[in-house]
């Protein structure tokens, strides 16, 4: 399993370079970059965690680098449409965006064919953010008060249980499938469009539980309408210190987080990547930015390009196995 410490391990170089002549021309212009607005392609809809956090970072990059970072939402196909737009853009530094765990470490095992190569078609600049999933169930309909009690209760249910997710192949879907498989629970996956539909389904008693991104559930947990049994991060989450980790709750080897990197097209000149990376390091070190991220249920991260590439690579075998367990397949 991947831990935060593993991000410090040695890693391969960022993949793909542009042809030598073109790369040389780009390198000559890297010194005055950016001298015009930078397009930020967000492969997900407005209002979601990726969109919200990318907006915070883009605002900070604009201030630090002196040019507007203009956001363009290109949602669809689990982020594949937006990621294709980034991959096929000119590698001159003027197209960037967030690439999530789904884009870099899951989609290649889920889709029969992708319009881009997650390992070769991007210049990965830095880790961007991370947030855990949380095991939640409706307080009104779920008697157990601990995760182990919930497991025993779920096993004993005559018709099994149902778990929701924001879509096939998301970390919420794969986490639920892994959890049910590991604990031998008869669980039925029910895909929704997002937490805005999952939460009402649980509160009405139509859905048993979810293991979904923490950011979407903090308010309902605080209100007491949902019970939070455990978080899937390696350590307890700072804003919810009373909720145990999966390991503390009795489920070992279950560290599954949603995370995001900041990328551009393959072949971006290293001086431009380094300039963006340095700005992202300053952003992640800013306590005010970290507080804004924590308020949304996430942690702002920074890493070297090489460590970000290595992190995505180390996660792929785990998610390949999770996709296999789930039986999910997309055309």
> Would you tell me which CATH topology of the largest domain applies?
D-Maltodextrin-Binding Protein, domain 2
Return the CATH class of the largest domain: Alpha Beta
The CATH architecture classification of the largest domain is: 3-Layer(aba) Sandwich
Gyration radius, in Å = 20 Å
Helix content: 25-40%
Silhouette: globular
Please provide a written account of the structure:
- This protein has helices at residues 20-29, 49-65, 80-87, 101-110, 147-156, 171-183, 195-203, 218-223, 270-284, 287-295, 305-326, and strands spanning 38-42, 69-73, 95-100, 122-138, 161-165, 187-191, 209-213, 226-231, 257-265, 299-300.
- It is an alpha/beta fold and 331 residues long.
- The chain has two domains: 4-130 and 259-317, Bordetella uptake gene, domain 1 (D-Maltodextrin-Binding Protein, domain 2, 3-Layer(aba) Sandwich), CATH 3.40.190; 132-231, Periplasmic binding protein-like II (D-Maltodextrin-Binding Protein, domain 2), CATH 3.40.190.
- α2 links the parallel β1 (38-42) and β2 (69-73).
- α2 crosses α9 (270-284) and α4 packs across α11 (305-326).
- The radius of gyration is 20 Å and the shape is globular.
- It comes from Paracraurococcus ruber.
- Residues 1-27 form the signal peptide.
- Belongs to the UPF0065 (bug) family.
């Amino acid at each position: 399993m991947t831990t935060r410490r593993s991000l410090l391990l040695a890693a391969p170089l960022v993949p793909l370079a542009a042809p030598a002549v073109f790369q040389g021309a780009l390198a000559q212009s890297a010194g005055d970059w950016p001298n015009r607005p930078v397009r930020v392609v967000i492969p997900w809809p407005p209002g979601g965690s990726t969109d919200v956090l990318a907006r915070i970072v883009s605002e900070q990059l604009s201030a630090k680098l002196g040019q507007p970072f203009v956001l363009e939402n290109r949602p669809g196909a689990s982020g594949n449409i937006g990621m294709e737009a980034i991959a096929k853009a000119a590698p001159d530094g003027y197209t960037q965006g967030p690439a999530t765990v789904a884009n870099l470490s899951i989609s290649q095992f889920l889709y029969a064919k992708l319009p881009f190569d997650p390992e070769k078609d991007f210049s990965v600049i830095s880790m961007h953010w991370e947030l855990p999933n949380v095991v939640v169930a409706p307080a009104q309909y779920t008697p157990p008060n601990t995760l182990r009690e919930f497991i025993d209760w779920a096993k004993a249910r005559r018709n099994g249980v149902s778990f929701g997710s924001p879509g096939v192949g998301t970390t919420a879907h794969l986490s639920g499938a892994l959890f049910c498989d590991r604990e031998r629970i008869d669980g039925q996956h029910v895909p929704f469009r997002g937490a805005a539909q999952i939460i009402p389904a649980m509160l009405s008693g139509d859905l048993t539980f979810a293991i979904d991104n923490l950011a979407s559930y903090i308010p309902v947990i605080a209100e007491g309408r949902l019970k939070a049994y455990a978080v899937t991060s390696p350590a307890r989450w700072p804003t919810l210190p009373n909720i145990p980790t999966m390991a503390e709750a009795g489920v070992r080897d279950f560290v599954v987080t949603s995370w995001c990197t900041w990328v551009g097209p393959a072949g971006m000149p290293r001086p431009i990547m380094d300039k963006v990376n340095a700005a992202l390091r300053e952003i992640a070190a800013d306590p005010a930015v970290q507080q804004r991220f924590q308020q949304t249920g996430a942690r702002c991260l920074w890493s070297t390009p090489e460590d970000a590439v290595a992190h995505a690579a180390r996660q792929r075998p785990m998610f390949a196995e999770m996709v296999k367990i789930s039986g999910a397949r997309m055309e």
